[in-house]
């Protein structure tokens, strides 16, 4: 495949971030040839961000884009459309990078997992947290034994929506709609905190959670707190909080071991501190926004090799399923007011 023709499906706020990553890669073998959005004005606006010269067409739907306008697609539509659009694009024989979360239901996860297992196309899930430079560094330090075998970790997803993270456009309205988002803060951004804790401590076994609808703009939970038991006996906490007011910065992650503690700073611009008995070291590895370039590079590499994404790959559908199962277990725990098993599939 001399030139890979890329279609961007969904031209909202996250599309701009993926486009920035593509520009940073500066790979001449990648050409954006299709922009698809039900709002053609959004697609036309995105087209203006493409480097010139470019041969890119705007379409109002995947059906309108047809079968020969792109070879691979980055799907960035509202969560409730993930299954439908991924199914349609894969049925056309295209490669897919699908934004997180994989789906908002167990049934949706089952369908996409079956598609991933049956297709010979590249089907990767865009869970950027696995490429988050500070998370990658923390995992490396844990493997090196810098803090010993970790026994406890906490993840804090505290976001002042529209103030300190959505810095390039309005927050899309569907984020506030639980029918389209799949819930509230847990599905909107919390899944980005679930995967790092799984990578650092292992797969999760049970959760006990409570939530609160404290900010009425978001018509679902804006505050969620979950105790986590891991399959290996370790423990942790997940804490998600969305609001529209400025909030004091607290660490995004803290990982504790017998020899020390690792803190990933509570700011998207980055920062990590390692505490041991002998010293304290602080570094900035690139921040959350630094995760999108290596993520896109991983997808492009798979396209060039035409390699099937296996369970061992960070972008595998099977790993994305596990993240969704944790989210759904949190919601069940709130409803049932008890500990819930994660592996309900």
From TrEMBL:
GO molecular function, one term: nucleotide binding
Annotated signal sequence range: none
Alphabetized InterPro entries for the sequence: Gfo/Idh/MocA-like_OxRdtase_N, Gfo/Idh/MocA_Oxidoreductases, GFO_IDH_MocA-like_dom, NAD(P)-bd_dom_sf
Domain GFO/IDH/MocA-like oxidoreductase, chain residue ranges per copy: 136-262
Pfam families associated with the record: GFO_IDH_MocA (PF01408), GFO_IDH_MocA_C3 (PF22725)
Gfo/Idh/MocA-like oxidoreductase N-terminal domain: residues covered: 4-126
Family assignment from sequence similarity: Belongs to the Gfo/Idh/MocA family.
Record's protein name: Gfo/Idh/MocA-like oxidoreductase N-terminal domain-containing protein
């Amino acid at each position: 495949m001399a030139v890979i023709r890329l279609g961007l499906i969904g031209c909202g706020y996250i599309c701009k971030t993926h486009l920035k990553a593509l520009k940073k890669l500066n790979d001449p073998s990648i050409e954006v040839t299709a922009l698809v959005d039900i709002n053609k004005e959004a697609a036309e606006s995105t087209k203006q961000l493409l480097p010139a010269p470019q041969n890119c067409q705007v379409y109002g739907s995947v059906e309108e884009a047809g079968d020969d306008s792109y070879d691979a697609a980055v799907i960035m539509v509202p969560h409730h459309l993930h299954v439908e659009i991924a199914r349609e694009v894969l049925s056309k024989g295209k490669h897919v990078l699908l934004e997180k979360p994989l789906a908002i239901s167990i049934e949706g996860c089952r369908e996409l997992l079956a598609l991933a297992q049956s297709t010979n196309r590249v089907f990767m899930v865009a869970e950027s947290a696995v490429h988050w430079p500070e998370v990658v560094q923390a995992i490396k330090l844990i493997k090196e034994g810098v803090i010993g075998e970790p026994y406890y970790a906490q993840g804090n997803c505290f976001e002042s929506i529209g103030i300190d993270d959505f810095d390039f456009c309005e927050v899309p309205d569907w984020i506030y709609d639980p029918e389209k988002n799949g819930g509230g803060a847990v599905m909107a951004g919390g899944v980005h905190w679930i995967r790092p804790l799984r990578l650092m401590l292992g797969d999760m076994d049970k959760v006990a959670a409570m939530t609160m609808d404290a900010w009425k703009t978001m018509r679902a939970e804006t505050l969620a707190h979950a105790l986590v038991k891991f399959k290996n006996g370790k423990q942790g906490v997940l804490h998600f909080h969305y609001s529209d007011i400025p909030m004091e910065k607290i660490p995004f992650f803290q990982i504790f071991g017998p020899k020390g503690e690792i803190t990933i700073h509570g700011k998207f611009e980055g920062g990590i501190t390692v505490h041991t008995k002998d010293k304290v070291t602080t570094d900035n590895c690139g921040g959350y926004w630094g995760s999108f370039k290596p993520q896109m590079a991983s997808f492009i590499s798979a396209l060039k090799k035409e390699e099937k994404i296996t369970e061992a790959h960070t972008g595998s559908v099977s790993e994305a399923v596990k993240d969704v199962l944790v989210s759904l277990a949190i919601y069940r725990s709130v409803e049932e007011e008890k500990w819930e098993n994660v592996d309900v599939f």
